[in-house]
Design goal:
Number of strands: 21
Structural class: alpha+beta
GO biological process, one term: signal transduction
InterPro entries: SUFU-like_domain, SUFU_C, SUFU_C_sf, SUFU_N, Suppressor_of_fused, Suppressor_of_fused_euk
Distance between the termini: 38 Å
Helix content: 10-25%
Largest sheet: 9 strands, mixed
Low-confidence stretches: 5-24, 102-113, 284-301, 311-360
Subcellular location: Cytoplasm; Nucleus
Oligomer: single chain
Family: Belongs to the SUFU family.
Protein name: Suppressor of fused homolog
Number of helices: 13
Mean pLDDT: 78
Strand content: 15-25%
């Protein structure tokens, strides 16, 4: 991306062209999808019609790597009465449909919708003496946008993203992100649909873990109550050296009570995982019931892969929105991102016929299974058991290194093809494991050392012979290089 400051007289070069929403019309050459977005920005910043921008040198719809067309940066003087400090407000342009499907189709040949219906924003506390906004937040937003365009997973309020590195490449403790509705920018109507604004909020590792164990919205509400940790406008301060739990120890009690009462609303993650069917010898390659030979994922055809994705999308669908979970996935320019199929406590599909793949993928009952996870994925098993299954819910691991999914279900989950009589069942590469409450409690005791990753030595194996279940925690290299 490169920095630009669009000229006010150039009809299609930036917010300097045309007038604000409701006070005039934009030039006809100006992309129609931008009208409402710029109008909302001008409502908040009427004195800044020509903000500093950074832009993609080669547009995404012309083959460039950066999905965002540009990021505009506004200076907000804050509000001392509300404990809101002076800060920079970044607004992205490009995730929503700004040009219309026809223009995007002309250059990309895609058949689906070109926009995702939201734009990203970010509020960064202004450093003393800082006269120009730093541009690293624009790169951060581009990383998130790449993930959205490549995975076609959308964000929603309450989602969280593991970054595992200071957001500004400094020594800051702010190394992860939560997402929420922008507290000032309202949804706008464009010719191509409604555009909402989701704000990125930088958080510490301890705050991210609390969001995982409980829920993102609950942690966001706590951040709003602590001025130095975000305040009412959730402003990120990269120099913040304390977590909200160090600032106010009573907040940890609220989180603990919330976890006990509500459980976790994290229903799944993209992960480094695999599974083996131990019911038959691994050399039996004639049946689709085993999708791993050793650690080598069996590759599915494009048709099979799409059917599995549709099964996960429809069979685990929530009535509202998808969620972006947090664990370490393939790294893209510093980005670790994952998704969860749902928050719904049912595996019912809208139509059973809609998710049944062709005859090569059929449901099978298995006698014995071996589950494999990397350390970060394995560390979430206690959350899966305590925060989800003990609350009558389900939890899914979706592999990022192969077309594999593992769903843990409790006896109260409807629509599962795993049953108490046959607790291990596979639908092609999708494995379901039904665990009774009694077995969950036992597993939590046996897996207690997963809560202390600093003392963990790999590989690590857990086994319950009478249940014919084995779990292995393996180094990342096993999943990064299946032939290792």
């Amino acid at each position: 991306m490169e920095g630009v400051r669009p000229g006010g007289g150039a009809p299609a070069s930036g917010p300097g062209s045309g007038s604000g929403s409701g006070s005039g019309s934009f030039p006809s050459l100006f992309p129609p999808g931008l009208h409402g977005i710029y109008g909302e920005c001008r409502r908040l910043y009427p004195d800044q019609p020509n903000p500093l921008q950074v832009t993609a040198i080669l547009k995404y719809w012309l083959g460039g790597p950066d999905p965002l067309d540009y990021v505009s940066m506004y200076r907000n003087l804050g509000n001392p009465a509300l404990n809101v400090p002076e800060h920079w407000h970044y607004v992205s342009f490009g995730l929503s449909d700004l040009y219309g499907d026809n223009r995007v189709h002309e250059f990309t040949g895609t058949d689906g919708p070109s926009g995702f219906g939201f734009e990203l924003t970010f509020r960064l506390k202004r450093e003393t003496g800082e006269s120009a906004p730093p541009t690293w937040p624009a790169e951060l937003m581009q990383g998130l946008a790449r993930y959205v365009f490549q995975s076609e997973n959308t964000f929603c309020s309450g989602d969280h993203v593991s970054w595992h590195s200071p957001l500004d490449n400094s020594e800051s403790r702010i190394q992860h992100m939560l997402l929420t509705e922008d507290p000032q920018m309202q949804p706008v109507q464009t010719p191509f649909g409604v555009v909402t604004f989701l704000q990125i909020v930088g958080v510490c590792t301890e705050e991210l873990h609390a969001a995982q164990q409980w829920n993102g919205q609950g942690i966001l509400e706590l951040l709003r109550t602590v001025p130095v940790a975000g305040g009412p406008w959730l402003i990120t301060d990269m120099r913040r050296g304390e977590t909200i739990f160090e600032i106010d120890p009573h907040l940890q009690e609220r989180v603990d009570k919330g976890i006990e009462t509500d459980g976790s609303n994290l229903s799944g993650v993209s992960a480094k995982c695999a599974w083996d069917d131990l019911s038959r010898p691994p050399e039996d390659d004639e049946d689709s019931r085993s999708i791993c030979i050793g650690t080598q994922p069996r590759r599915l055809s494009g048709k099979d892969t799409e059917q599995i994705r549709e099964t996960l999308r429809r069979g685990l669908e929530i009535n509202s929105k998808p969620v972006l979970p947090p664990i370490n996935a393939q790294r893209q320019n510093g980005l670790n991102l994952d998704r969860a199929p749902s928050r719904k406590d049912s595996l019912e599909s809208e139509s059973s016929a809609a998710i049944i793949p062709h005859e090569l993928i059929r449901t099978r009952q298995l006698e014995s299974v071996h589950l494999k996870f990397n350390q970060e994925s394995g560390a979430l098993i206690p959350l899966c058991l305590r925060g989800r299954l003990l609350h009558g819910r389900h939890f899914t691991y979706k592999s990022i290194t192969g077309d594999t999914a593992i769903t843990f279900v409790s006896t109260g989950v409807e629509g599962a093809f795993a049953t108490e009589e046959h607790p291990y069942a596979a639908h092609g590469p999708w494995l379901q494991i039904l665990l009774t409450e009694e077995f969950v409690e036992r597993m939590l005791e046996d897996l207690e050392d997963l809560n202390s990753p600093e003392e963990f030595k790999l590989p690590k194996e857990y086994s319950w012979p009478e249940k014919k279940l084995k779990v292995s925690i393996l180094p990342d290299a096993v999943f990064d290089n299946p032939l290792h």
